[in-house]
Amino acid sequence: MRITTDVDRCVGAGQCVLTEPAVFDQNEADGTVVLLTDEVGGEAAERVREATHICPAQALSISD
Amino acid sequence: MERRCPYAPPAEYDRIRAENPVSQVELPTGKRAWVLTRHEDVRAMLADPRFSSDRANPQFPALVDNTRMREAFKPSLISMDPPEHGPARRAVVGEFTVRRMEALRPRIQEIVDQAIDDLLAAEEPADLVTHLSLPVPSLVICELLGVPYADHEFFQQHSGRLLSRETTPEDRRHAVDQLTGYLDKLIVEKEAAPTDDLLGRQIVKQREDNNVDHEALVSLAFLLLIAGHETTANMISLGVVALLEHPEQLKLLRDDPGLTLSAVEELLRYFTIAELATTRLATEDVEIGGVLIKAGEGVIGLSNSANHDPAAYERPDELDIARGARNHVAFGFGAHQCLGQNLARMELQIVFDTLFRRVPSLRIARPVDELDYKRNSTVYGLHSLPVAWT
């Protein structure tokens, strides 16, 4: 699964980092999302799917 | 509307959600507003930039007349819309990243241990609200803002007075003035010599960005004080009651401390104590849940109803700490979702873990339906919670 982020929309809530810290991190300066990898599979993919759903700014998108 | 039994959402929510999920109500101020009750609709509305948070707009569907608070402070984050809101939030949200909150963990643990020491040194029955629920968030905010230790007592005394039901409107105004005066002076001191804490770093940042704004910092400090204090305190008290009242759930938690994270999410969903924070004003005509909401009309996204929507949760009125309820809207949704949510999560995790580990015999010293609930407050919770342990 491929992940893309829209940093302009991101509001730094950190929900993605709580959900899958191996994939998402936050910029220390303004809290916005930093992708640690843009390809995931297996169980991590499920958690990324959840992160995409709960992101309050709808700043994450996934494609197969 | 009053909650049932005593902490489930009002029974009317289920009826309205089933029969008329997007309906109109008359507010205490005489204005009319739309009420959204479904999880899907509340999420859609809060994520839509065509709904404004500008509480200074006379059309905003305020539940109470808050003119005085509006005059006292510059608009803070919660009242801002684009394009001002994004940069203002970004200027401070870096202070609340998951990593930064993790770095605060040892200090929060100390604060919680100290509060539990004080509780156990008190005569039984002791009030959990006075000894634990209120001091923990208060001292954590002191830590975050960089309030010197010597001023903690002054800070706690006045913020306690601000939040107490016993306080007369006049004394409450006095407490607001005292705290604002204090924060103003604190920020002046930090402007002279910026310290390594949230306010000190904001001062440095403002200078780097050529955007020095003393009043905005006072307003931000006051917002963080108010938003992070009573909310967390009420969640501590209600969480303790709910876990003690569901011994099978508490046993699950004790047997597997790894469940605490999930238990905190479930308690947040279950109580949704700040259900009216998700009120907005339509700036354009928008269709939500099949109903046309017109520009200039107010909307209340009833987050407590959304979090008990059977379309989003199986057995929504059951407390199930293993549910993994991550998609709740207890912290709101959209661009204004709670700035301090990861701080709140951490405080709640540490409190529940430590309290039930250190005081396994903790019990409520009064029948649960006779406790002093904040039935008509904007933020639901408990005024007091008598507990015993011997």
Q: Can you describe this structure?
A:
The complex is a heterodimer of chains A (64) and B (390). By secondary structure, chain A is of the alpha+beta class. Helix content of chain A is 28%, strand content 22%. Chain A has helices spanning 15-19, 42-54, and strands at residues 2-5, 24-26, 33-35, 60-63. In chain A, strand 2 and strand 3 form a beta hairpin. The longest helix of chain A is centred in the last third of the chain and has 13 residues, at 42-54. The relative contact order of chain A is 0.35. In chain B, the strands form three sheets. In chain B, strands 1-2-8-5-3 form a five-stranded mixed β-sheet. The radius of gyration of chain B is 21 Å and the shape is globular. The model of chain B has no long low-confidence stretch (mean pLDDT 92). In chain B, a hairpin with a 5-residue loop joins strand 1 and strand 2. Chain B is α+β, with helices and mostly antiparallel strands. The A-B interface holds A 11-15, 17-19, 21, 25-32, 50, 53-54, 56-58 and B 46-47, 86, 89-91, 93-94, 96-100, 326-327, 331-338, 341-342, 345.
What is the number of helical segments of chain A per DSSP (H or I, 4+ residues)?
2
What structural category do the secondary elements of chain B indicate? alpha+beta
Structural class of chain A, by secondary structure, is alpha+beta
Radius of gyration of chain B: 21 Å
Distance between the termini of chain B: 37 Å
> Sheet with the most strands of chain B?
5 strands, mixed
Compressed to H and E, one letter per element, the order of chain A equals: EHEEHE
- What integer is the average pLDDT of chain B? 92
Oligomer: heterodimer
What's the SSE blueprint?
The complex is a heterodimer of chains A (64) and B (390).
Chain A: E1 2-5, H1 15-19, E2 24-26, E3 33-35, H2 42-54, E4 60-63
Antiparallel strand pairs in A: 1-4, 2-3
Chain B: H1 11-19, E1 22-26, E2 32-36, H2 39-46, E3 51-52, H3 67-72, H4 85-93, H5 98-121, E4 126-127, H6 128-133, H7 135-145, H8 152-163, H9 169-192, H10 198-208, H11 214-227, H12 230-245, H13 247-255, H14 260-271, E5 279-282, E6 286-288, E7 291-293, E8 298-301, H15 303-306, H16 341-358, E9 363-364, E10 386-388
Parallel strand pairs in B: 2-8
Antiparallel strand pairs in B: 1-2, 3-5, 4-10, 5-8, 6-7, 9-10
Helix pairs in contact in B: 5-7, 5-16, 7-8, 8-9, 9-11, 12-14, 12-16, 14-16
